[in-house]
Design a protein that fits this description.
- The chain is of the alpha/beta class and 238 residues long.
- It has helices spanning 56-63, 86-95, 112-122, 129-138, 154-166, 184-201, 212-215, and strands at 13-24, 29-41, 45-49, 71-76, 79-80, 97-100, 172-176, 204-209, 220-225, 228-234.
- The chain has a 6-stranded mixed sheet. A 4-stranded antiparallel sheet has the order 2-1-4-5, covered by helices on one side.
- Helix 3 runs parallel beside helix 5 (154-166).
- The longest helix is centred in the C-terminal third of the chain and has 18 residues, at 184-201.
Length: 238
């Protein structure tokens, strides 16, 4: 992993500058992002909303370093992600950000402990058993560390996914429809957990959602339509 590109940088700051992305097949070209620009300060809790096909998931993938822009630049902590190769983007995901997916993305043959530690294990890093215990305890899933995903509820699986994202003490947490497969109470509990992390750790969070009741928990709501921002509202968290 090319971690050296992150040396000597200052406070985290995310800038998306005039980014465009088109997906094309043999018959149709779809403009997913249209010259989109935004900035996110350290410690913000930002919800990005929009109808299906608005471009919000494409934006998520760009910020996560999972896809490349056709045009424009994305800067994180002073580094232009659009100039990084695959190895450097993998290092960015491992060292700087945490990702929570709607469908949890847990490996079914691994227990909770191994799912949480898997990214570090793949990178050949030391696994801090005490740290895993502490995170699991804080998330209320300490008793699920030896359980397989099939032995957990949806909320417990999502908390394992959150623990996996937090294990590396990420600077930026990206969540793509994290409540989409949860019941109402479990979804509420998860969002309250993210709020707590944002407020107690000043963790920067970008959350993609179509659910306005979830988005309204954030301190800022960005609305995307047809690949560009149509509204950017800052609000006080109650």
């Amino acid at each position: 992993c090319k971690e050296s590109v992150w040396e000597g940088k200052g406070m985290m700051y995310l800038t998306v500058s005039e980014v465009s992305k088109t997906y094309a097949n043999e018959t149709v070209a779809t403009l997913a992002l249209n010259n989109l620009s935004m900035q996110v300060e350290k410690g913000e809790f930002v919800a990005i909303v929009g109808h299906s096909g608005s471009g919000k998931t494409t934006l998520f993938n760009m910020v996560a370093g999972l896809d490349n822009a056709d045009k424009g630049h994305i800067f994180f902590d002073g580094v232009d992600l659009t100039t990084l190769d695959e190895d450097a983007r993998a290092a960015y995901r491992l060292n700087k950000i945490g990702i929570i997916y709607q469908f949890f993305n847990l490996l079914p043959m691994l227990n909770g402990w191994d799912n949480i530690s898997l990214p570090c294990r793949l990178a050949g890093r030391f696994i801090d058993d005490k740290k895993i215990q502490q995170i699991a305890s804080a998330l209320g899933i300490k008793d699920k560390l030896n359980s397989l995903p099939s032995q957990m509820s949806g909320g417990e699986q999502q908390r394992i996914a959150v623990a996996r994202a937090l294990y590396n003490e990420c600077e930026l947490l990206l969540a793509d429809e994290p409540t989409g497969n949860l019941d109402q109470q479990t979804a509420h509990d998860l969002i309250e957990l993210l709020l707590q992390l944002n407020q107690s750790r000043k963790l920067t969070i970008i959350l993609i959602t179509h659910d306005m009741s979830v988005a309204e928990k954030a301190s800022r709501i960005i609305t995307i339509k047809d690949g560009y921002i149509i509204n950017d509202q800052r609000r006080a968290i109650l």
